[in-house]
Amino acid sequence: MKQLQSKLKSFQKLIIDDKHYTWTSEKYNQTFFGFVVEFENGDKGNANSTKEEGNYIIETEYTYIKEIKEVKGRMITNIKGINKLNNNFTQQKSTYNDPNKIKQMTLSVCQSAAINLFSKEIVPKKNYSEEMTDKIANKFYLWVIKEKIDRDTCSLRWNAIMRSIEILTFIPIPEITTTDWVIKNSEYFMSQINKLLITKTEENV
Asked: Which segments of the chain belong to CATH 2.40.50?
């Protein structure tokens, strides 16, 4: 029989004589519970589950086999071999918190931050060089990953760097080294964020 594929639209208990239909397999020594399942492609029929409430998930892609046969003069559609479709995307290992990926992203953001210091003329353009840009970017990078290498923490810290650089566009240039001021101000931003997170946590307790 041909294997079919579609998303599950709905399922409900198969009721016969006002009871949830069940049957026991002597071969497997297992009780099965009857359900009526319907798929988005229009296929509908009777199915069995070992779970009393069913183990189906609406809007999930399944493969199955449809069998139509005559029982006591009536045509019955049975849905057999229901299996959740293997989704390669969900089976792949997530790279969200992959340390190497996070380091690459962090370095890229920090390089952009370093270039912004020159493009916004916070640091005189005459001092620009790739070597100087890399030096500044590395300083920012080490600060960002210092706390913890995970996506959420690093994104908060590199955003603090970018915000500090934005502030430098409309305040007097600080007396201390520009990169030191950016990091110092970023530390202040992070302290405020941490206070806010602690307050929110206490409110939820």
From this structure: 3-89
161, 110 in Cβ contact below 8 A?
yes
Distance of alpha carbon 185 from the chain centroid = 31
Helix (H/G/I), strand (E/B), else coil: 73: coil
- Find, among 11, 8, 12, the residue nearest to 61 by Cα: 8
| Per-residue pLDDT tens digits for 14-47 | 999 999 999 898 877 889 999 999 999 999 999 9
Distance CA 63, CA 60 (A): 10
Query: What pTM was estimated for this model as a whole?
Result: 0.52
Secondary structure letter of residue 188 according to DSSP: H
The H or E element that residue 136 is part of is: helix 130-146
Please tell me the CATH code under which domain 3-89 is placed. Answer: 2.40.50
Report pLDDT digits (tens) over 80-111. Answer: 999 987 654 444 456 678 898 899 989 999 99
